[in-house]
Amino acid sequence: MPVPSGSTTLGVLICYSANTEIPDDTRTAVMTGIAAHAGEFLERRRAEQYAAELDQSRDEYIALVGHELRTPLTSIQSYTDMLLTEPGMTIADRTQMLQVMNRNTDRLPALIAGCSTWPAPARGRSPCTPGASILPTWSAPQLPEPLRAPRSPSR
User: Fold this and answer.
1) Using one digit for the tens of pLDDT, what is the confidence trace for 20-55?
2) Distance between CA atoms of 79 and 82, rounded to whole angstroms?
3) What is the pTM assigned to this prediction?
4) What is the domain extent for residue 10?
5) Would residue 146 count as lying in a domain?
6) What is the domain-level CATH number for residue 19?
7) pLDDT digits (tens, 9 = 90+) for 66-120
8) Burial class (CB in 10 A: 0-12, 13-18, 19+), 3
9) Residues 97, 79: contact at Cβ < 8 Å?
């Protein structure tokens, strides 16, 4: 008996008996039903395996995205803390930190936009979508006085 899965055959169900038997319609119907159930079971098992692999891939992807987002955020946070708590820092050091912070804030939208190329996984979860930044964009006039670089004299 063929073991079906939709329009394909997964295998063949073979039964042996010690006695010679002549196939009849009842036996054929029972064997066909058993083969169909075996096919459904195998297909369900395969679908569960694919779902588990999808879950694992999604978890690995989320961990990777989390790491990629934490990296620039960590430098932004630590430099912000240093700028606020170290009043004796030189202007050159402050400028360098602000440049690193600016470079990392420029990198975040690209990372977030990369999430939108990931298809929505199973169970109705939606992919990340790019949107308005939740991080403020600062220019020198908006910074508190201790963080501003001195203005060069006008020519």
Assistant:
1) 878 788 888 888 888 888 889 888 998 999 999 998
2) 5
3) 0.48
4) 2-113
5) no
6) 1.10.287.130
7) 888 888 888 888 888 988 898 888 999 989 999 989 988 888 887 777 766 655 5
8) buried
9) yes
